[in-house]
Amino acid sequence: MSNLSLNRLQEERKAWRKNHPFGFYAKPQKDKEGNLDLYTWKLGIPGKAGTIWENGVYPVTVVFSKEYPVKPPKCQLPNGFYHPNVYPSGTICLSILNEGEDWRPGISVKEIALGIQALLDEPNPLSPAQREAYHHFIENKAVYNKKVKDQVKRYME
Amino acid sequence: MNTDVNVLFELIKIIQTPQNNQETFRNAQRQLQSVQKSNEGWEVAKVLLSSPDNQAQFIGAQTFLVQLNERKNLPPLNVVQQDLIQSLQSCVQLGYSSFVTRKVVSAVAKQFMSSADWNDCPHLVLNILPLNLACEFFQFLIEYSELDTKIPNETLKNGIKQKLSVPCALLYKILDETDLKCKEAIEVYVSYCNYFFEEFKPLLPKLLNHLFIPEFVVDATSAVKELYQNFRRLWPVSYKKQLAVVFSNVQQVPADYVDDEAFLAVVGLIVDVCMEDFTEFTNMYPLLASLAGSPYHIVDDPLAFPILGFWNQYVEEAISGGMESSAIEFIKPVISSYWPRVKLYSELSNSDLNEFTGFRRDYTDFLELSYQLVGSEMFEHLTYVVLNSIEHANKVNNPDEIDWFSIENALYCLNSLSDIIGEDYKGDRPEFESIQRIFQSDLWLILPQCKNFRVKQTAVNAIGCFVDFFQTKEGQPFLATTLNYLFTCLESPSLQISASKSIQKLCRNCRDLLTNEIPVFLSVYERIRNYLEPLCNARTVSGIGYVIQAVPDLESKIQIITLLIRTIFTTEIIEFVDPSASESQNFTQAGISAGVNDQRELELVKLHCLAAAGKSLQDPDSISFEKAQALKSFYSSNELAISTHNELEGIVYSCLQSDDPEIIDSVCEIIKTGIPEPAGVFVFSKSFIIEFIRQKSLICTPDTSIPILELAKFLVCTQLSGQKSRQTTGLDDTELCILIGILYNRRGETSAALDVLTEIQRTCNYRGIQITSLQGALEMIVGVAIPSAGSSDRFILRSASTFLKEFLSVRVEISPVICENLMATLLNQISGNASRSDLTYTVDIFKLFISCHQLQATVWLKKYLIDDPLNEVIGSQELKTRTDFVSQVLLLKGSSRTQQIILKFWLLCRGIPETYEPIK
């Protein structure tokens, strides 16, 4: 099983290098010994241009299990990230990352990155994960927009 | 035929006329579709196909397909086949438009796939159609096979192989005879290879020959790319050799290669093939290396990203495959080749910046990987670039001569390598020496002369990246100069964000070394505070706060703190400046005209800054009991400390009446900063905090109650947790009950209130704290939590689940009323009321209920499921089903398999048992 996941992750790395969208980055992290750990990646997701999320690059930690690609990776934004579909722990609630929903083994790292980028500006109110951002998004868009814009500043490069 | 042909032509005309309104269009479309599906459809198709209008012909061909899909009103089989072949002949003989013929070809293919005994169809088609359309026919066959065969992959492959064995042999023959001499032939060849690679493999050399023919090169490269990627291991060695020969013909890079479509296509193929197999085509490496040094700007070079992608992958493979020594001969020149290309240039437009920055980021990944092969030489080179540029400018004594873009480039690359050094600063490491030389240089003195903000921004980031350097003995002498430079940068709107971030980082890590600089920092802050963007303002205050925290003398410390707080409180808003604003908008020009135009924003800026100050003043180390006592004694007797603290109390109280959630949130943040501390101006007494919470909870709106509840949670948990709190006394019984009462009063905000109560329970349980009155208060709260466990609001449900789990896990006895209500709520959810995605919250409570309170749970479980069904849905299930469910869940005693049993029951109650497959 782990060989399968490792091979797939190597292919994903290659595929990303061959073709990835501008402004994004995705690379495996290093372990304590300084070797590449293909099971933990750092993704940089830029906010879409023309949206309140633009100018920020949001760091996502992607943790793949040995069961990948049968099981989806876990994707986490920083703790306390303000977004209706992000749990207080930073875990992203997105259907393509959910084994019981739309995850398919064929989904690539690039698709995950683009999916998260789309989710930023198009939250899913049917699947809320944190109270504050969800409440603002539904009840008070002005406060929501301001909070997002304040957050963007923290993620400007 | 009953349908009037003229009406049909009229309808076709309507749907083709763009200016028609939507309603007219939809009506015409509906009528036409109805005719297409009718029992006259087949005849209509023939009539339309024979008309002179090509749009009508198209609708006619489409009608054939509609009829073949519907298969309700078709004429006899032989008529269908005859009509289709005749139509095909007419299309070719009468020179119909290709889109019409293509549609008829598609109909013929559809019929062939549907009938088992039309074996001569492919032959008939081949006799009628030219090669390109015949290929389309075969393409349709494979597409229809894929669509029709909705079965897992391997079976799909076998199914298609069986279905297409005859056409496959025929296709092979014509592709062989015609040498794949059209784009459609290449396309269909690839499609069939995906299922019949072994059978079609012998034609690969013909495909490879197309790589030399300009009109086919683009299609052929994409075909070879796909086939090599999918079947690399099945490629015979001789074919790989042929591919290598093809590649070896591309050794020279044409001067205008960015416009040479054929060259771009072949190099794209070379890159892809080489990335699949790093040992097979090493003869192409010189070409790929020379393309790395292309004279074109990154944004104008379609090969820039693929080539860098290759080199990145190459280094990684070289390192993991143990080919370091052979790789280094390519790597070093490639690093240098890219150097001028990753340098900023004045013509770089904002629209191209994203692409350029993306490339640079990939390049720095390449550097980071290559470092393992090249080593410290890389640092030396980058340092040399910076120092050499400065030296040159000094020699000619003209700052305009400084090559700022080279400096920026080197600093950008060094920043990306900062992780390599990490915290491991040792004087004897050459990398360390390089960094030392950068910070020793005149760079930081001459940088203010630079007019390009990106150069300055990269320099500011460099300070943040190498913050650990300043903590070393060698770095300390440069700390003050560097920080002063950063403070200067705050004056520039475009640099504020980076500069304030670096200031905060540097001050936090080097606080002990900076205490002498406080007067300078405060004076600069006082001068620029009105012009700072709110986040940068708070970060700067936070930075100064860290340094103040390190001041050893309490008398001096309190004076400086007071000064900082008063400075914050004399802040005005001159202008909030967009950080991406142009360089010219520096603070001296940022119009005072804006003035204090938004009192609320100003209020918020001040409160955020105070919270930032309070947080950074927290002691990072643990404090001994004696020291805590000494601090308390000082802060309770020093007049200035008392008056400053009173000022803060006044500020907090003045916000009590506010309905603005952000204001209340900020005030609560200020209060929180003092809670873990033993003493200080930000330390508010428990009674003050509880009174604040009590008063605010009486008047707050749902919006403002959340920060208040969060404050209550923080207070309780910090006070109850001896490890977190440095105060010797926690909350007493009465204080706790007051708080719980407040929370009970705010039960409208169920989710937040329950979260706080969960934390209280959890902390008490963890710390083994027994508070008699708390037990009673908690049972009162359970009255709120149980109905919440049946809520359709996920937040409330989640909070109730967590609360009840904590409650159930430690209570030895629970009153029968609670047990009954709880079981009724849970069973209501389990009998189909919970949503599928939220069922897990119910299951979690249920499992604990069964495992921790089995006797009591059993009574109500049996009553509401077997003896006296709780609701109609439960009652409608068979008795055996219900009895089995009860026995199973009791047998499992709350273990993980309970989840599956409950899910099965939930599905039954929802009336969808067939969707449930037991997990073995």
Comma- or semicolon-separated keywords:
A: 157 residues, Ubiquitin Conjugating Enzyme, 17% strand, B: 920 residues, 45 helices, 0% strand, extended
How would you describe the overall organization of this protein?
Chain A: One of its GO terms (molecular function) is SUMO transferase activity. The complex is a heterodimer of chains A (157) and B (920). Chain A is of the alpha+beta class. Chain A is 34% helix and 17% strand. Chain A has a 4-stranded antiparallel beta sheet, with helices on one face. In chain A, strand 1 (25-30) and strand 2 (36-46) form a beta hairpin. In chain A, helix 3 crosses helix 4 (141-154). The model of chain A has no long low-confidence stretch (mean pLDDT 91). The model of chain B is unreliable at 575-597, 723-729 and 914-920 (pLDDT under 50). Chain B is built from 45 helices and no strands. Chain B folds into 6 domains: 1-115, no CATH class; 274-371, no CATH class; 375-474, no CATH class; 476-673; 685-808; 812-920. Chains A and B meet through helix 1, helix 3 and helix 4 of A and helix 15, helix 17 and helix 19 of B.
